[in-house]
Amino acid sequence: MLFDPTRHEALQPLAWDEGACRAAIQAIVDDTERHFSPERYWPPHPRDIEPGDDLSIPGTSLYYGACGVIWALQHLQSLGAARLSGMGAPSLLFGVSVLGELLLGAGVVIGLSHLRLSRS
Description:
Oligomer: single chain
Distance between the termini: 41 Å
Strand content: under 5%
Number of strands: 0
């Protein structure tokens, strides 16, 4: 099943509140940055773990790994939707690309992100 109602909050008839939305996005970004580890990047979500996965190898994919998280953080910052802390996207991008643990294709996203950062 694509949608499981027990895993989501029920919709509520709330008025649009840009400040509340921005605060919620920033809280998610802050939590994401707090959980970063230079050795492990971010812990995998339990539902992303498949039988036989080697959890000693950090996830680096675009879909549910470090590459995707870094891209999302940088994208939110570039839109003005969130502020990154001192750890920031440039240092994350440098750290991940230097380690050379990215899967095929992820390097393209890292490269584009470097280009994007150099233009801002």
